[in-house]
Write a structure and sequence with these properties.
The complex is a heterotrimer of chains A (276), B (274) and C (445).
Chain A lengths: L2 H21 L16 H8 L1 H32 L6 H9 L6 H12 L5 H8 L15 H27 L3 H9 L4 H29 L3 H6 L11 H10 L3 H29 L1
Helix pairs in contact in A: 3-7, 3-9, 7-9, 9-12, 11-12
Chain B lengths: L1 H30 L20 H9 L2 H32 L3 H13 L8 H10 L6 H26 L3 H8 L4 H12 L1 H16 L5 H4 L8 H12 L4 H32 L5
Helix pairs in contact in B: 1-12, 2-12, 3-4, 3-6, 3-9, 3-11, 4-6, 6-9, 7-8, 9-12, 11-12
Chain C lengths: L1 H22 L3 H4 L20 E7 L5 H14 L3 E7 L3 H11 L5 E2 L4 H5 L10 H6 L2 H6 L11 E13 H6 L8 H14 L4 E4 L5 H10 L1 H9 L1 H9 L3 H4 L7 H14 L12 H9 L3 E7 L3 H7 L7 E4 L11 E12 L6 H11 L2 H11 L15 H13 L1 E3 L11 H12 L5 H16 L1
Parallel strand pairs in C: 1-2, 1-3, 5-6, 8-9
Antiparallel strand pairs in C: 3-8, 4-6, 4-7, 4-8
Helix pairs in contact in C: 3-18, 10-11, 10-20, 11-12, 14-21
Classes of the chains: A mainly alpha (276), B mainly alpha (274), C alpha/beta (445).
Protein name (chain C): Extracellular solute-binding protein
Keywords (chain C): Signal
InterPro entries (chain C): Bact_solute-bd_prot1 (IPR050490), SBP (IPR006059)
């Protein structure tokens, strides 16, 4: 019964993919005839300083984004796990950003953060503190921080929901017996909550690694990879190469990117499994 | 002591919610400002309550058609994902064949392949299938993209279900196919909500594929319609753009409110055990 | 048993997929110029014998007027139906269309690479069109390599400095012809009007910075080598003539001048985050004295403030290199090409005949806010005051056009992102020039 799913996948993914892989071995520019050039595209990639810088950008984004998303999501989940009035509404609000199209999100965040003009600037201006808002989107270091934070803001709700589900599947008896054994808050967190959360941690870590390393929408919407190439990530590079008359090369980069994502995913799956 | 902690906790929650809501609030303010007002001119927090924007936005953009299109695409793709995904997950979870393992790992690794690699061949394929500018074609593409992650979720869930009932039914002479539809599928309900929420909004907001496969204005989905509309005004009518965005966001929020309770149940019941 | 069958079936299918890739639609097969049966999915005849023409456009400002003209055309006869498709990223999306064989019958995108591949229909024999087009525009539509025409440009567009005439007359400033005068003007504005940005650059948008390169350093090359000479130098990548990398070459001097203005505070401090919307807002509210842009910005300006028209002045780019003149862009715009593989050549030409009728071109020109390229079309494309302003500016400076001969792998946006890096302090003028030369050469490959 896996066949219908497999068939659909084979037709709309594997079949085009196989041609895509073929393309990565050619010098096709999207216009003229393609010539088979073997693995030259793959070698060229590592000689391209812009590509190397983009790998760095992508890794920095992922190293900031994936752990932060997990920490913030877990923090939210711990906060929201208790019983209090308006719990349902609060959860909805926190999840809300995740369901909005990045297209709209980009416009709004730009209007919020733009130096000298945005909403935050005007709001701070009201209390005479407008100097607090730096030129973050135009600064070569700060713009990456902004991207990470906006990404965390948008998807922390998603991470939270999965952690919440994990928290709620932990039976209360475990906490009670830990209490009887004299465990404090930290002990029960360390010896009860964390091990029981492992499945949620695994899902979150893996999806956040994939999502962060493949980040595209939010960067395009907010900084367009700029200023200069400061926030250009690998997926943007692939897109620009694909349309910039290096179509064959861009598919080769996509295959390289697959391995860049695969390695940390495999490692984190291993790590979370061994402790299980 | 305890009440102080409680107070801090509540304060933190209120702050977090506020941070999450700020952009929506700004969108709403802009959508209610008169056209003459430039951004935050005058005051920041109180809009003009100019509801004409919504009427204009509705009439000038094709957002109404786009909402219907997005809804059709989302429902169709989700139906495919749920049925095919659940069937595949059931097989993978219950039968330890090499092919099943292969399919599972294939799906997992394809989650990590950047979609752009497929663009040109997929476009050529869609033309040969006469699927350009059709909602069904778009639905199939969206379903394919979301299939791996839903198989992942469903497989985890099926594994957490007891095998005994199914085995009893087999002994009674039921085929595996009937067992799946009569016994297992109804039990999957909780994780269905999870799959819907985790994939549905992505499909609703799909832009990367829509650009290629939905070219006709009558077939535009929401992001396509919005981006054309935003472009056409080139920033000169922020109030109308904001109003259109608000209209586009409302159905998503309503859908989320409907599904959010079952999402929590579904995730707790199975997904995170995978 | 059933399972085994399924496995075998799928294995067979999978095998088919992979072996299929080598033979069927490999990129080389799909990019063959003609002949393949699937190469023209773009146009089909429906059962009634009616022909459907697909028209692909990236021109947002003409969507509505084109729909109007298309509707008139569709109802004026019963053989042809024209369908318009607009895409924001038209120049990217057309590549996917060409690559997969789904080529629209008529399109507004035009690229040298496709000319070289023979993707456009030769329109040289359409003498009715060319006799109506101004000589300069016909020259702009002509492919340098073959001397033939593969597109018809219906309009002209101009780019230069928009400036606030009120501020200029209040401070007694005149249009600058040299960079020294230009810088002096900016300094006067900064001193006398502290709240006003002398030159507003909206550098968030890479295309705008790319245009500055296109108009100022490339403008210098085009002006000194002449239109045809510059095109040839760029096509052949004649390094001596282009001289991009030299420390006293057009790139380094441009970079130095721009950094100078930045250091002196003569451009907006938020140059890296400002958008064209910001620019329009600041200009109509008197907070920006001048900015560089093309005529296409006009409708945004008048949308933001209908009274702005009387204040708009239009000036050429001052000369910034020794022995050069000030330049202004006067280029072809809104080009229409026909696919070389269309099955409906006659119908496509019939539609273009209709579109090019003087009364339709008048409408079109006025909607696009650009003067018509046809000599027999008298359109009020802009308020008379501004149109005069533009005509005067065109006469006062060397007219240049867009560079279509740029390397395929180095777009205007790429150049713009290099200017962002320059403004962000990543380059000195000298390293900027060498980096530009390297990017240009790499893009040629």
């Amino acid at each position: 019964m896996a066949v219908p799913a497999f068939l659909l996948f084979a037709v709309f993914f594997l079949y085009p993919l196989s041609q895509g892989i073929w393309m990565s071995l050619t010098d096709w520019d999207g216009i003229s005839r393609a010539n088979f050039i073997g693995l030259r595209n793959f070698f060229d990639f590592f000689k391209d300083s812009r590509a190397i810088a983009d790998i760095k950008n992508t890794l920095i984004f992922a190293l900031g984004s994936a752990p932060l998303l997990n920490l913030v999501g877990l923090g939210y989940a711990l906060l929201m796990n208790g019983k209090f009035k308006g719990k349902g509404i609060a959860r909805v609000m926190i999840y809300l950003p995740a369901i909005i199209s990045p297209l709209i999100m980009g416009y709004i965040w730009y209007m919020l953060l733009q130096p000298d003009r945005g909403f935050v600037f005007h709001a701070l201006d009201l209390i005479g503190k407008s100097s607090l808002l730096g030129n973050w989107l135009g600064d070569y270091t700060a713009c990456m921080v902004v991207l990470v934070l906006v990404n965390v803001w948008q998807y922390a709700g998603m991470t939270m929901v999965i952690y919440l589900a994990g928290l709620q599947s932990i039976p209360d008896e475990l906490y009670e017996s830990a209490k009887i054994d004299g465990a404090g808050f930290w002990d029960s967190f360390r010896y009860v909550t964390m091990p029981m959360l492992l499945p949620s941690i695994r899902i979150n870590v893996v999806t956040n690694i994939i999502g962060s390393l493949a980040v595209f929408d939010i960067v395009m919407a907010l900084t367009d990879g700029g200023p200069g190439y400061a926030t250009e990530t690998l997926s943007i590079y692939i897109m620009r190469m694909c349309y910039g008359s290096k179509t064959g090369y861009s598919t080769a980069v996509a295959i390289i990117m697959f391995f860049i994502i695969l390695i940390p995913v495999m490692i984190s799956m291993r790590l979370t499994r061994e402790k299980e | 002591m305890n009440s102080a902690v409680n107070f801090m906790k509540h304060l933190a929650i209120i702050l977090i919610c506020a941070v999450c809501l700020i952009p929506f609030y700004i969108l709403l303010i802009l959508s209610l400002n008169k056209p003459q007002r430039i951004f935050y001119q005058g005051n920041l927090f109180v809009p003009d309550f100019y509801f004409q924007n919504f009427i204009d936005a509705w009439q000038k953009s094709h957002i109404g058609t786009a909402i219907v299109n997005s809804a059709v695409i989302t429902v169709e793709s989700l139906a495919i994902i749920l049925i095919f995904g659940a069937m595949a997950a059931f097989t993978i979870a219950r039968f330890d064949y090499k092919f099943n393992k292969f399919v599972f790992w294939l799906f997992m690794s394809c989650m990590m392949i950047p979609g752009i690699i497929n663009t040109v061949p997929l476009y050529a394929l869609m033309i040969r299938l006469n699927a350009i500018n059709t909602l069904w074609g778009m639905s199939l593409v969206c379903a394919t993209i979301a299939l791996p992650s839903s198989v992942f979720i469903f497989t985890g869930f099926v594994k957490s279900l007891p095998r005994e009932i199914e085995e009893a039914a087999i002994i009674d002479g039921c085929s595996w196919f009937r067992v799946f539809w009569k016994i297992t599928f109804p039990l999957l309900k909780p994780s269905v909500a999870a799959v819907i929420i985790l994939n549905g909004f992505g499909i609703w907001n799909n832009y990367a594929q829509a650009v290629f496969f939905l070219q006709d204005t009558k077939k535009h989905n929401i992001p396509q319609a919005l981006s054309v509309y935003f472009q056409q005004f080139a920033g000169a009518h922020w109030n109308l753009m904001a109003a259109t965005a608000v209209i586009a966001v409302i159905p998503v929020i309503v859908a989320f409110l409907i599904f959010q309770k079952s999402l929590m149940k579904g995730l707790t019941a199975g997904a995170v055990k995978g | 048993m059933k399972k085994l069958l399924a496995v075998l079936l799928s294995a067979a299918l999978l095998g088919g997929t992979f072996s299929g890739c080598a033979t069927s639609v490999s990129p080389s097969a799909s990019s063959q110029p003609q002949g393949a049966a699937s190469s023209e999915a773009g146009s089909q005849s429906d059962s009634g014998g009616k022909v459907t023409l697909k028209l692909f456009t990236g021109k947002i400002e003409t969507i509505d007027v084109m729909n109007e003209i298309i509707n008139d055309f569709n109802s004026s006869q019963d053989k042809i139906t024209v369908e318009q498709e607009y895409q924001k990223d038209a120049s990217n999306i057309i590549k996917i269309k060409f690559a997969s064989g789904e080529v629209p019958d008529i399109m507004t995108t035009y690229e040298q690479g496709y000319v070289d591949e023979g993707k456009y229909l030769d329109l040289s024999d359409q003498t009715d069109w060319w006799s109506r087009l101004s000589a300069a525009m016909k020259a702009d539509c002509t492919d340098v390599k073959t001397g033939k025409q593969y597109r018809v440009c219906t309009n002209m567009t101009m780019a230069g400095f928009f400036y606030n005439k009120d501020i200029f007359s209040e401070l007694g400033l005149k249009q600058a012809t040299t960079w020294e005068e230009f810088e002096k003007n900016l300094e006067t504005i900064k001193q006398k009007k502290p709240g006003v940005t002398p030159w507003f650059i909206f550098g968030k948008e890479a295309w705008h910075l790319g245009h500055l390169i296109e108009f100022i350093p490339h403008g210098y090359i085009k002006q000194t080598l002449g239109t045809v000479g510059a095109r040839k130098a760029m096509l052949d990548n004649d390094k001596e003539k282009l001289n991009f990398g030299a420390a006293d070459g057009p790139m380094a001097v441009f970079a130095k001048d721009l950094l100078d203005l930045k250091d002196k505070g003569l451009i907006n401090s938020d140059v890296l985050t400002a958008t064209s919307d910001n620019c329009v807002q600041d200009f109509v509210t008197g907070k920006a004295a001048m900015f560089s842009n093309g005529m296409w910005v006009l409708s945004s300006l008048t949308d933001a403030d209908p009274n702005i028209v009387s204040k708009i002045g239009f000036a050429p780019y001052p000369s910034y290199m020794p022995k050069s003149k000030s330049v202004i862009l006067s280029a072809e715009d809104s080009g229409y090409s026909i696919s070389a593989t269309t099955k409906h050549k006659a119908e496509a030409i019939e539609f273009l005949n209709y579109l090019f009728k003087p009364e339709n071109q008048k409408k079109y020109s006025e909607a696009a806010g650009a003067p018509s390229a046809f000599t027999d079309v008298q359109a009020d494309w802009a308020p008379a005051l501004l149109a005069n302003e533009v005509t005067t500016a065109l006469k006062s400076a060397a007219n240049i056009d867009f560079t279509n001969e740029k390397p395929a792998g180095f777009s205007g946006d790429d150049a713009g992102r290099m200017v962002q890096d320059l403004l962000g302090g990543k380059y000195t003028p000298e390293t900027f020039a060498t980096a530009y030369e390297k990017a240009w050469n790499d893009g040629m490959k």
